[in-house]
Amino acid sequence: LVSSTTLISAYADKGLLEKAQEVFDSMPERNLVSWTALLVGYAQSGRLSEAATLFRTMPEHNEYSRTAMLTAYTHCGQLDKARQIFSSNPVDQTVCNAMMAALSLAGLVDQAKAVFDSMPELDLVSWNTLLAAYAQSGRFAEAKQLFDAMPDQDIVSWTALLTAYASVGNLREAERIFFGAMQCHDGISVAAMISLYAQSRDLEAAKRVFDRCERFSLQCSNSLLAVYAVNDRPEEAKLVFESMEEWDALSWTLMLSAYAHSGQLSRAEQLFSATPPLAAAASATAMVWAFSQTGHIVHAKQTFDTMDQRSQASWNVMLAGFGQAGQLSEARKLFHQMPCRDAGSWASLLAAYAQNGQPWRAIDVFYEMNASEAAAVAG
RNA sequence: GAAGUUGAUGAUUCCAA
User: Fold this and answer.
1) Å between A283 CA and B11 C1'?
2) Rounded to whole angstroms, how far apart are CA atoms A191 and A221?
3) Mean pLDDT confidence for A342-367
4) What's CA A91's distance to the chain center, in Å?
5) Alpha carbons A238 and A271: distance in angstroms, whole number
6) What is the mean pLDDT of residues A11-26?
7) For A159, what's the count of Cα atoms within 13 Å in the CB-facing half-sphere?
8) With left for phi above 0 and alpha for psi between -120 and 50, is residue A185 left, alpha or beta?
9) A257 CA, B10 C1': separation in Å?
10) What is the mean pLDDT of residues A238-248?
11) DSSP-derived 3-state class of residue A35
12) Nucleotides of B under 7 A from a protein CB
């Protein structure tokens, strides 16, 4: 039982869900841990419907499975469902922390603070979550105040503080923290500093930090790849990509969009054909986007049709593609085919009508939304 | 001995640059 469950987790981590499912199916008996491990696997690959089905059919739940499902809904923009899990179960520290993160992701920082205030016990994750919520929403004063009030701080807290300084454009203070106050670093803290330099348009400094810290490779490389992709430097991106020792789905997406951004569509296609299964869904989405951007809506649709796992983002990208191409009836059709819709889907449909001289239909669409969807779009 | 929550990075709407 234990070793099969370990195997499920291992496959799930690598995005090999078919394998994980196979192991799960062949188990003579299962427990909550095995169910949850598989659920998390689907959730992390963005396969929400499969995760939800597992959650519904599993014989029992505990804090682990509830937290996992709550987070899965959050990452797919389904805050309502996350709230439902939260409010219909007994209070649990980790579930509260996850709910705070969910609210923060939806931009509802004050509601996250309300959860924080209601918690009987706070741990480091609770403090860090609220700190990050302030930092990400540009509420610097509150972030700093909370940081100083925390019983103790770890590298997560320090990195969040770094973001807080960045959000108010205080690069000097961020440097002082990164090179001075912080006593240790990991891939994410270095990646944060890289993108901070990139935001202040100092690509040289970004590269310098990267060169000094290559031992934290994957996260730092992705961060630098993103810098080059956005700044139209496909050659430098290629150098980074080829020097990497491991790649995740994001690395592939970044490299593809570096080519796409610079108009090198054939190079993008070439790379796309070499994409490993782990990155297949993300890469295909990037290609759909690249084709739509360059007016190749037919190719975009073809690529979309060959995908066997469609994330929420991929549906939205395709929808936006039809909008840009002026194919409104296709857009509307796709919108109704989508298994679920998040704020981005509604926004894309609205934009499609608005940009094609039919703003009144956009208004109709707007009134079709229910209140929570409208709130999400407004947010 | 196995599973969940927090920090950086990308693609989808609007705006800005």
Assistant:
1) 9
2) 8
3) 81
4) 26
5) 11
6) 93
7) 17
8) beta
9) 8
10) 92
11) helix
12) 1-14
SS3 A107: coil
CB count, 10 Å around CB of A294? 14
Tokens of A50: 């499969």
Give, in Å, how far the C1' of B6 lies from the CA of A172.
25
User: How many C-beta neighbours within 10 Å does residue A130 have?
Assistant: 26
Question: Is the CB of residue A160 inside 7 Å of nucleic acid strand B?
Answer: yes
Residues 224-283 of A with CB under 7 A from strand B: 225-226, 229-230, 249-250, 253-254, 257, 282
Residue A139 has pLDDT above 60, yes or no: yes
Q: What ipTM did this prediction achieve?
A: 0.89
Instruction: Identify the three-state secondary structure at position A27.
Output: coil
Residues 133-152 of A with CB under 7 A from strand B: 135-136
Query: The tokens 């930092």 sit on which residue?
Result: A135
Residue–nucleotide distance: A345 CA to B13 C1' (Å): 8
Type of residue numbered A231: N
- Residues A224 and A233: their CA atoms lie apart, in Å, by 11
For residues A321 and A289, the answer to whether their CB atoms sit within 8 Å is: yes
Q: For strand B, is any atom closer than 7 Å to the CB of A297?
A: no
Residue A369, pLDDT score:
67
Q: What is the DSSP string of A197-225?
A: HHHTT-HHHHHHHHHHTGGGHHHHHHHHH
Position A379 scores a pLDDT of 42
Structure tokens at A299: 């190719």
Of all nucleotides, the one whose C1′ comes closest to residue A182's CA is B7
CA A257 – CA A286 distance, rounded (Å): 7
What Å value separates CA A136 and C1' B7?
Answer: 10
A5 touches strand B (CB under 7 A): yes
